[in-house]
Amino acid sequence: MLGKLKNIGKEKNLSSLMANVSVAFLGLVSFMLLTRQLSKELFGEWVLFITLATFVDLLRFGLTRTSSVRLLSGADDQKQKCILGCTFRINLKLLGVLTFVCWGAHMALLFFSLEINNGYRLFLFYYPFLALSNLSWNNAMSLFQAEQNFRRMMMVRLSNVGLFCLFLILNQWWLKLGLLEIVWVNIAVNAISGIWCSIKNWDGLIYVRHATRTVEKELVNFGKYSMGTLVSSSLLKSSDTLIIGMSPILGSAGIAMYAIPLKLTDLLGIPLHSFAMTAYPRMSKKSIEGDLAAVKKIFYSYVGIVTLLFFPVALTAFVFAEHMVLFLGGNEYLDSLPLLTLIFRVFTVYIMLLPIDRFTGVLLDSINRPKLNLYKVLVMTSANIILNFLAVFVFKSLVAVAVGTVVFTIVGMFLGFFYLKREIQIQSKQIVSESVLFLKNLKAHLG
C-alpha cells in the first residue's frame, strides 16, 4: 500500500497539481488578507496593478517560455546552456524596452496632468522594479517545466508567495502598513526568489555567454506566435478588470467586487493549469518524433478526464457559491453578496467549458501550429473585449461581463476543434472512448 502511494506521489500530473495547489493556497490566504487590510477602493487599485503586471509578464516571458520548453525537452547539457542563455538575454532586452515605455508614460501623465485610475499609475511607476526582481525566477520556470521538475518549481514559487503571505499576516496583526509598502514588499520577495535561482544557475544568467543568434532567432520565430497567444489569453481574463477600471461608474470598487468571484474561478482552474503543464511536453515530444497517433491519444485522454473531474467541482461551486464568496471577501462585501454570488455562478459554466478550450490550444502548440493557436485566441480576445465594452459602458453590469466570458469560451472551443480537424483529423467522439480506456488502465498508469 505504501509503495503504491509512493508511486502516485511521483506521478507527474499529481506533482504538478501539488505544486500549483500549494502556491494557490498561499495566494488565496494573501488575497483574503488583502481584502481585509485595504479599503474597497485601495484593494481595487491593487488588483488593477497586479493584473497589469501579470499581463505584461506574460508578454515578456511568452516570447520565450513555450518555445524554450519545447526545445529544452530532450536537449543535451550544452544545448540547454545555450537555450537558457538565449532566453535570459532576450528577456533582459525586453525589460529595458518595457522600463522605457512605462516610465515614459508615467512622466507624460505627470506633465500633462492627466487623470486616470491610480492602479494604472502604480503600474507605470513600480512595474519596472517588479519586472527586474522576477526576471530570474520566471526564466528558470522554463527549465523546471521542460525537466518536469515540479518539486523545484514549487519551492521557488513558495519562496516568494510564502514570504509575501507571511508579511501580510504580520501586517494584519502588527505592522498595519498601507498599499505602497505592500507593493514594495511584493517586489522584495520576488527579488529573493530571483537571487536564489541565479545562485543555483537555474535562470540562465551565467550561460548568457553560450547564447547564439541562431538559437535566439529560433526562439523568437516560434515565440512570436506563442507570445501573441499567451498575451491574448491573458487579455481574455485581464481585459475584464482593465475595462472595468476605465468606467467612471464602476471604477476601483467595481474591480474589487469583480475580483472575488474571478479569484474563486482561478482557484477552480488550478488543476487544469497543472495538467496542461504536463501534457504540453509529452505531446511535443511525440510530435517531434512524428508519432501523431500518440499525440492524439494523449489529447483525448486529457480532455476527457479533466472535463470529467471538473463537473463535480463546478456543481459544488454553483451550489455553495454564496458561502464561498463571503468566505473569500469578508464582511466588507456583505452588501454586494447577491451580485457576487450570481457572477460566480455564471463563472461555474465557464469552468466546465475551459478544459476543451485549453487543451485544443495546447495541442496546436505541440504540433508546431502556434500561428493557428494565436488566431484562435485573437478571435476569442476580440469577442471578449467587444462584449466587455458593451457590458461596462452600455449595460453597466458586472454580470454581463461574466456572461461574455462564457460566450468567448464557446467560440474558442469550436474554433480550436475546427483547426485540429483540418490539421490532424481530430475526432471529438474519440475523447469518450480514450477516456474510458484510460480509466480502465488507471492502476497500470500509476505504476
Automatic annotation (TrEMBL):
Main subcellular location of this protein, as a coarse class: membrane
Subcellular location: Cell membrane
GO cellular component: plasma membrane
Keywords: Cell membrane, Membrane, Transmembrane, Transmembrane helix
Membrane topology category: Multi-pass membrane protein
Domain of life: Bacteria
InterPro entries the record matches: Poly_Biosynth_Transport
Transmembrane portions of the chain: 14-34, 46-63, 94-114, 120-137, 158-175, 299-321, 333-353, 374-395, 401-420
PANTHER family: O-ANTIGEN TRANSPORTER-RELATED, PST FAMILY PREDICTED COLANIC ACID TRANSPORTER
Protein name: Uncharacterized protein
Species of the source: Flagellimonas eckloniae
